[in-house]
Design a protein that fits this description.
This protein is mostly beta strands and 374 residues long. The chain is built from five helices and 19 strands. Helices cover 13% and strands 33% of the residues. The strands form four sheets. A six-stranded mixed β-sheet has the order 11-10-13-17-15-16. Cu cation binds at residues 125, 130, 165-166, 176, 181, 337.
């Protein structure tokens, strides 16, 4: 049974939805009903269990055979998360994490997602896959109320890293996205990745970075406000959002989510694929002390990768990928190179790299000593 506030918020979603989702649903319904069914019974099926970022579920880099139907299940959770020591957010999440988990398939596979909106939630939700074709990226076919679930299947026809996000209609769209509802699906070429010369190249691990801009309101004394649920803070949050000045810009849901005790790890000699998603704003990833050996800046693997980039650009509403082979041990900072956002607002991750130091690449010729100049 929905509370009065929850019912009002669902009503607000319904009122907003016709501009984008409800109209598309109405127009799509007869097309779906009249379309000839597709028989995929001959294709093998595989179920993947999603894992929380920055990690990625088990997958093959080279497809082991022909196309498959890859099954995923994702629950939507509305819950409070701590963004910083003094800031909390009534978040909306795919599978309980910000960003939502990464899905990995191969080009030509079918993605079959069971999307569930538990009864305890207050709001309508759906999912828009930038990797898909038709019906607002699936948004017109997946709009569900609390206590409902749906199954969407689409063919992964294009290789690359793509954003997915919630898009329930009208003003609900930016609110849901900036409350945490975005993630990445990676569609690998069937033969795996290739370098700038068209030669096969593999990665040893994936690091999945989801960058979010949050807009947490402050009270009259300048302290961040805290709300009992998402709907209670809606008006205040929209007023902050419309000024386009985020209170926080973070990696993986919180300031420090990937630093300190939460720092990521790697080893000298390992090739690490950094996959970076930003569903709302442009960003400029940079690995301090390293480079982008190969960078698919727009995230699309059929494009020839750029080589040796110092900083790359991820357009808002997209995911990009960069491959780097670590050559030196130490602590690396992976940042949004708008350094105000990196240092002051939280968009920083750390990678601790183990291995032997190579003085040929970098050497401290003289340690700091007293100044001897005039």
């Amino acid at each position: 049974m929905l509370s009065r506030r929850a019912a009002l918020m669902v009503g607000a979603g319904l009122a907003a939805a016709p501009m984008l989702v409800r109209t598309a649903q109405a127009e799509t319904a007869p097309m779906v009903a009249d379309a000839a069914p597709v028989d995929l019974s001959s294709l093998p099926r595989i179920r993947r269990e999603l894992v929380a970022p920055p990690f990625v579920h088990e997958h093959e880099q080279v497809a082991p055979g022909g196309p498959r139907v890859v099954e995923f299940t994702m629950d939507i959770h509305e819950k409070e998360i701590q963004v910083a020591d003094d800031a909390w957010l009534q978040a909306m999440t795919f599978n309980g994490s910000v960003p939502g988990p990464m899905m990995v398939v191969h080009q030509g596979d079918y993605v079959e997602l069971t999307l569930r909106n538990p009864p305890a939630n207050m709001l309508q939700h759906n999912i828009d896959f930038h990797a898909s074709t038709g019906a607002l990226g699936g948004g017109a076919l997946t709009l569900i109320n609390p206590g409902e679930q749906t199954v969407l299947r689409f063919k992964a026809t294009r290789a690359g890293c793509f954003t997915y996000h919630c898009a329930p209609g009208g003003p609900m769209i930016p609110w849901h996205v900036t409350s945490g509802m975005s993630g990445t699906i990676m569609v690998l070429p069937r033969e795996g990745l290739k370098d700038q010369h068209g030669q096969p190249i593999a990665y040893d691990r994936v690091i999945y970075i989801g960058e979010n801009d949050f807009y947490i309101p402050r009270d009259e004394n300048g302290a961040f406000k805290r709300y009992a649920d998402a709907s209670e803070g809606y008006e205040d949050t929209v007023n902050v959002m419309n000024k386009l000045i985020p209170s926080h810009v973070v990696f993986n849901g919180a300031v420090g989510a990937l630093t300190g005790d939460n720092a990521l790890t790697a080893k000298v000699g390992e090739r690490v694929l950094f996959v970076h998603n930003q569903a709302n704003r442009d960003t400029r990833p940079h690995l301090i002390g390293g480079h982008g050996d190969l960078v698919w800046e727009a995230g699309k693997f059929d494009n020839v990768p750029d080589v040796d980039l110092e900083t790359w650009f991820i357009r808002g509403g997209s995911s990009g990928a960069a491959l780097y082979k670590f050559l030196q041990p130490g602590l690396y900072a992976y940042v949004n190179h708008n350094l105000i956002e990196a240092v002051n607002l939280g968009a920083t991750a750390h990678i601790k790299v183990e291995g032997e130091w190579n003085n040929d690449l970098m050497e401290q010729v003289m340690a700091p000593t007293p100044y001897t100049g005039a």
